[in-house]
Amino acid sequence: MPRLQKNDNFIDKTFTVLADIILKILPTSKEEKQAFSYYRDGMSAQSEGEYAEALEYYYQALMIEEDPFDRSYILYNIGLIYGSNGEHIKSLQYYHQAIELNTKLPQAFNNIAVIYHYQGLKAANQKQFNISKSMFEKAAQYWEQAIYLAPNNYIEAQNWLKTTGHISNKYK
């Protein structure tokens, strides 16, 4: 059953109306339409901070959706929710699944890097310098991939790579 829009935002309402029209006119299967409907409802719930509800919709979409590209975005959004809730390990698992299906998802590479960087800072504060160094190296690898895919984005990450000496030769 479609989610009721609680948000009076004009853009959200417009998106919902356009998505409904597209769903009706596109020559797609009933299953594809249902998967998209769950995904759309998940995005709506997520934008309103209703994370548990959003996860339910995303999991429903995953059970139906077969297209790897579409599944990658569902997995990415699940990773976002877990990351927002501080469940970084779960978040990483979903981001990694997303990039296995779609290697051109710079935001997933960036978010993985952010988590590794956070873990590196945390380890450094606990004086676990070997772990910290390893986490920073992982962060650098994922930020480089994100920057490669979206060179005009992630300026702070680019600066961090340069100032810490983590940038590889291909980006100097």
TrEMBL record:
GO biological process, one term: photosynthesis
Keywords: Membrane, Photosynthesis, Plastid, Repeat, Thylakoid, TPR repeat
Keyword Thylakoid appears in the UniProt entry: yes
Primary localisation category: membrane
Subcellular location: Cellular thylakoid membrane; Membrane; Plastid
Species of the source: Haraldiophyllum bonnemaisonii
Membrane-related topology note: Peripheral membrane protein
Top-rank taxon: Eukaryota
TPR repeats: from-to residues: 35-68, 35-68, 72-105, 72-105, 120-153
Record family assignment: Belongs to the Ycf3 family.
Gene3D superfamilies per the UniProt record, alphabetical: Tetratricopeptide repeat domain
Protein name, entry field: Photosystem I assembly protein Ycf3
PROSITE patterns on file: TPR
CC per GO annotation: plastid; thylakoid membrane
Keyword Repeat: yes
SUPFAM superfamilies reported in the protein's UniProt record: TPR-like
Name of the gene encoding the protein in the UniProt record: ycf3
InterPro entries reported for this sequence: PSI_Ycf3_assembly, TPR-like_helical_dom_sf, TPR_rpt, Ycf3/AcsC/BcsC/TPR_MFPF
